Amino acid sequence: MDTKVLMTGLTVALGGMTPGLAIGIITAAALNAIGRNPDSAGEVRTNMILGIAFAEAIAIYALVVGLIIKFA
């Protein structure tokens, strides 16, 4: 098997799974915080969306790196 194909697959697979797991953990923690203190829902929601955006950016970086490995 070609090394480039293997490295591309690993990069994209790990780069896709890890942010998905992080988004699940972030959302669960935010829902737990809102459940404990409903008055802070607006601030918690804002921070949750920001954290999800950063985690999603990591997935995009992994996709770009995987494409660079494949085509370079």
Write up this protein:
By secondary structure, the chain is mainly alpha-helical. The protein has a single domain, classed as F1F0 ATP synthase subunit C (F1FO ATP Synthase). It contains two helices and no strands. The radius of gyration is 17 Å and the shape is elongated. The mean pLDDT is 92.
What is shown here, in short?
The model has no long low-confidence stretch (mean pLDDT 92). The protein has 72 residues and is mostly helical. It has 2 helices and no strands.
What best-fitting shape do the alpha-carbon axes yield? elongated
CATH topology descriptor? F1FO ATP Synthase
For the record, the count of structural domains works out to 1
**How much helicity do the residues have?**
over 70%
Number of helices: 2
Stretches where pLDDT is under 50 for at least 5 consecutive residues are none
Q: What is the class in the CATH system?
A: Mainly Alpha
- Nearest-angstrom radius of gyration? 17 Å
Major sheet description? none
Report, as a whole number of angstroms, the end-to-end distance.
17 Å
Task: Please give a handful of descriptors for the protein shown.
F1FO ATP Synthase, single chain, 72 residues, mainly alpha, 2 helices
Write the layout of secondary structure elements.
Layout: H1 3-36, H2 41-71
Helix pairs in contact: 1-2
